[in-house]
Amino acid sequence: MKAAALEDNDWIEDAIATIDALSLAHSVFTADDLRREMRPPAHKNWPGQALAQARKEGLIVAVGYQISMSKSRKHGVTRAWARKTNREVTPCSTASTS
Fold this sequence. Notes:
Layout: H1 3-7, H2 11-25, H3 31-37, H4 46-56, E1 60-67, E2 77-83
Antiparallel strand pairs: 1-2
Helix pairs in contact: 2-4
């Protein structure tokens, strides 16, 4: 494992928080938007890992595809994401005093 990958242990966690904010601010967003908002990742596939984790956590849902505007992606196809509107809410447990 490269030392650079060990330097920024919070990148994916920070990216998930940024993804949540992007989903509130924009009806549809892509990894290009995440790359613009975040500091550079230590590994090039971390943005994809963060988006996959946000999807697993029920924060976002895939809604289609767009052409990437990133030079590094050479204008390839990238997935479009939106905030998941029917997020499951876990009720808080309350202790009964009776």
